[in-house]
Amino acid sequence: MSDKDDEEDANQDDMAAEWAAAMSEQEDIDSTLAEQGVADGLTGEASAVEQAGLAPEASPAQYDELVPSNASIEGSPDLDVILDIPVSISMEVGSTEITIRNLLQLNQGSVIELDRLAGEPLDVLVNGTLIAHGEVVVVNEKFGIRMTDVISPSERIKKLR
C-alpha cells in the first residue's frame, strides 16, 4: 500500500468516527425525548430539547441587535448597496398591433399608426414598469424627456399586484 492509500484510509476512518459521534448524539436526543413521551411534532420536540437541557437557552433579541450596522441614524437601511445597480429605462411613444402580413409589407417610408394622439405624453418605463409620463425635448442636439407626471411608489406597487 502507498502513503496515499494510507492517507485515504485515515481520512475515511476520521469521517466514520465523526458520523458515529453525530449518530450517537442524535440517539441520545431521541432517547431523552422518548423518555419524556414527546410526540414527533416540531413544537413539542423543540420544547422537549430545551427542557432536557440539550440546547442552549435563547434570549429574545433586542431591537438594537436587529438593526444592521450600516443603517442610517433614522433606522432606514443604507441605500448605497443598491445605488450602482444598472436598470433599463425606455420611453414609449405608443403601440399598436398589426398582422404578420402587414409587418412583412413594411419598407422605408411606411407609416405605422400608434394608439396615442399627437402631443400626448410618453410613458417612461424602468425595467418594463411604468414610473412616469413625460414630453420630448431637445438638449444639446439630442433627444431627452422632461418628466411631467411621476407615479408615486405606492401606485407602482398597486399595479404590480
How much of the sequence lies in strands comes to 15-25%
**Could you tell me how far the N terminus lies from the C terminus, measured between alpha carbons in angstroms?**
67 Å
Please tell me what the overall shape is.
Answer: elongated
Specify the helix fraction band: 25-40%
Q: Uncertain regions: pLDDT < 50 for 5+ in a row?
A: 39-46
Would you mind describing this structure in some detail?
The chain is of the alpha+beta class and 161 residues long. The protein is 37% helix and 18% strand. It contains 5 helices and 4 strands; from the N terminus they run H-H-H-E-H-E-E-E-H. It has helices spanning 3-35, 42-51, 63-66, 100-104, 153-160, and strands spanning 89-92, 122-126, 129-139, 142-150. It has a 4-stranded antiparallel beta sheet, with no helix packed on it. Strand 3 (129-139) and strand 4 form a beta hairpin. It is elongated and about 80 Å long. 1% of the residues are buried. Mean pLDDT is 76; it is low at 39-46.
